[in-house]
Amino acid sequence: MGEARAVPVASASSYPGASDADADADDDARTRRRAVPPLAILACAVVAVSSAAVAFRALPDVPPLLLASWRLQATSIVLFPGFVRDAKRAAADDIERFRASAPELVASGACLGAHFGLWVWGLQTTSVPHSLLFVCSTPVLMSSCAALLGFPVRARDAIAAGVAAVGVILIAADANRRGDDSHASSSASPIRATWYGDVLSVGAAFAMAGHVLVGRQLRPRMPLFAYAFPATLVAAACLAIASAVSGESSSDGGGGGGAGWVRSPRAALVVCYLALGPGLVGHGGVNASLKHFDAMTIALALTLEPAIGSAIAYACGYAVRRNGRRPARRSAILGSARLGSTRLGSARLARRRRRRRRRLPSARSSFPTPRSFLFLFARRASLSTNARPARRSTDD
């Protein structure tokens, strides 16, 4: 009689669907120590992506849309085994959720295809520093568009984007003043910086901004390869169709058609490197980083591509001036500006994550699911209805 009995308390695992979430949380806790740090993944991705311009310049005779399609075709082949693995592990509810996200996946793939098509097109009509410079102006575009549309822009993000814009102006003014030339190959004529190629590169930056923003909405609720493979496949299909409609595949420089890269050993070597290096390590790392960083931080990290890519191009002999001089002093200032903008953005993100950890101790509470919101709403509604008769009885 007098013994106190333990009252059973409903734990989180007693609610429907919570056991799977607990199992996933336990798996994440066990593998957290062995996982690669997200910042290291993002750093390797930026270096890998920065080497793509030199690889594209190794095939100067292939039309731009067709060359971009080849690159994404090979990347899709590399990503397919991971997609099959994620599909086998997915539950029935996950598959239905993936199907519901099909329009967003198509939009993300279309933006990715537009980015590569415009960038390779601009890369073949302007210099390597100019192409890398303007294609990486995504943070400036994102901040400007957010301000024009009335969305709040943090002061640190605006400052970081402004520092990146200063770097853009410096390298553009330096190239126009000194006459920056880039060689597509050892036997090709130098390609001077042109406004036409710069405009195409800016269009590629707009397309990348759309791809990053859509991917930021999809990646937290989708596995890596389940998101990356469909988006890359859609991008490759869009570029193949655009190349066929424009007549690139049937032209003299068509490179053997839509899949001509498999017939040429040189093209196959370059395309395979583009798929494994900038494709799997580069864009795969960027897609993986979308789960841990916000879109602005990733865009700021990608602004390091002009400095790293120009250094790689100079080391490989694809960005040499006519008089044999090294890149100008303003290029070093550009790299410092890019590093400064990325440092500002990463410092803001680190402080925000520390504040979030202090407020919300558990990872699950920091990222609540719609199911948890519905449960809390139903519980509050039930408590309010049970409390109403008690109030009436006290009044009587």
From TrEMBL:
Sequence segments annotated as region (Disordered): 1-29, 345-366
Lineage, top ranks: Eukaryota, Viridiplantae, Chlorophyta, Mamiellophyceae, Mamiellales
Bias-annotated ranges (Basic residues): 349-361
Signal peptide: none
Transmembrane segments: 39-59, 65-84, 105-124, 130-151, 158-175, 195-214, 226-247, 298-320
PANTHER family for the chain: ACYL-MALONYL CONDENSING ENZYME-RELATED (PTHR22911), EAMA DOMAIN-CONTAINING PROTEIN (PTHR22911:SF76)
Keyword Nuclease found: no
Keywords: Membrane, Transmembrane, Transmembrane helix
Organism domain of life: Eukaryota
Family: Belongs to the drug/metabolite transporter (DMT) superfamily. Plant drug/metabolite exporter (P-DME) (TC 2.A.7.4) family.
Organism: Micromonas pusilla (strain CCMP1545)
Protein name per UniProt: Drug/Metabolite transporter superfamily
Compositional bias of kind Low complexity: 10-20
Gene Ontology annotations for the cellular component aspect, listed alphabetically: membrane
Chain ranges of the EamA domain: 40-172
